[in-house]
Records
---
Amino acid sequence: MNNLLYWVWLSEKCTPNTPIFSILYHHFGSIEKVYESTEEELKSIYGLTQAKIRSLLDKRTTRAQEILNECLKNNISILPYSEELFPTRIRTIKNPPVLLYYKGKLPEFDKELCIGTVGTRNPSPYGYRCAYEIAFDLAISGTYVISGMALGIDSVCHNAALDAGGKTVAVLGCGIDIVYPKENADLYNRLSANSTIISEYSPGTSATRYTFPQRNRIISGLSLGTLIVEAQQRSGAMITAQMAAEQNRDVFAIPGRVGELNSIGPNLLIRSGAKSVSHADDILREYEFLFPDKIKLLKKAEKPKKNPYAALNGNPNSVVKTKTSGYSSIADQNSENTHTETDHVTEESKEYLKNLPEEQKNICMCLSKIQPVTLEEIVNITGYSVSDTMSALTILEIQGIVNAVPGGGFLLAQ
């Protein structure tokens, strides 16, 4: 009987994210001794239930052999806990997996900068744009983007990394041969061909409400830091953030607009000590000294503009920059009526704007006190990134200079 068969046999006996495997492996010291354990030996181990002991005394390997055959047939590789390539980052977490099933080229995780990127399955246009932009820049800078292949933020981040020609790893909450959700079939194929898919669940294992929280500890465990893009307070993304903190990993969050449900999670994390992120460099600077030969910071002028979500829920040509220092919408240019001085920034208002940072001042110059201006319009006017613009608006809101209004617009408060 080969060693791999023992590992698959044991993985079927141990419920993920429980201490059973760690208890057994550290007690016996090898997979062979675990397999050969007697009833007397198992009864002497604190923490094993009678049901678990009976299960471990069943030495049949029929199911394990079927799994090995299935893996061979479908080009699925297996990495047991004892192998040198098994990432130390997850070998040392609480309740590590017994083994990993994987497709694609397995990275040497311990030698790479890996950043988890997670968030809601129902992002706002702002969430889509920020997720794509930051994941793209992380990947093009040499970072492995780790996520869970769920709809929404996860999928955006995987696609962004692939679009950048970088590397990304999907950690599944089901068997590695199952495409879940089905809408991600194309993404699954892209990942299989160009990056990596991993799972601790044997082929054929269906996704359940329990498997996703279990897999989240692997996403955070493989990553030196985890970025939360948009998330409600009670969500899988927030569970991942909690696990990252428990694993002594960094937690990052993109600030969200006050009052939005998907902003509650990130804003709460930032108030609790998570690092606020406006662009990828905010993350990369934390690790540049650890990976000087593998990652690089990108200058703004060098960052490619390929975000397919840049005009989501808005017409990217709806606002244009004028030849003067001011800005106006196309509708305004075609109208004989212009805003009055009380509508736009007045001379009196300009005085307090002088003390603002240049970026915040320019954003305020786009706004009026009467007609709301959308985030998309501000981005197109100023040329700033979505994340930089939203971060500046958040600060301006806190200072009472700008008000967010229903429908996604912004007004000058003064």
Note: The two ends are 77 Å apart (CA to CA).
---
Amino acid sequence: MEMIIDFPGGARVDAHFGPYTVKTDQPPMGGGEGSAPTPFAVFLASIGTCAGIYVLGFCRQRGLPTEGIRIIQRMHSNPFSGMVEKIELEIQVPPSFPEKYRPSLVRAAELCAVKKHFERPPQFEITTREMVATPR
């Protein structure tokens, strides 16, 4: 997969891939307009939404309604480094949700591909290269 990252103005940085664009910005105190979430907020949101895809899939496979189900994601940061040290995902279910499936919801959320990449992070290689001029 390839993404094109560009700079549409101000403190905005967008990622383009396939037919999609993920827009990011910085808050006004960070030099932006606050017109979109920060890249780090998008990153953190990918954890909960990924877990949500697996919870949704589990419920759909069993014909269980998803109405009233939600995931609360909490981040706990180190006060000195500012680094996130713990992420909690709490799957809230309505009282009518079958008790026997609650542990399975947790196991489904644990299958999240974003979470798995935290557990076995990829290597990073960052380089620069001069763009080749395209003929007009």
Note: The domain at 37-119 is CATH 3.30.300.20 (GMP Synthetase; Chain A, domain 3).
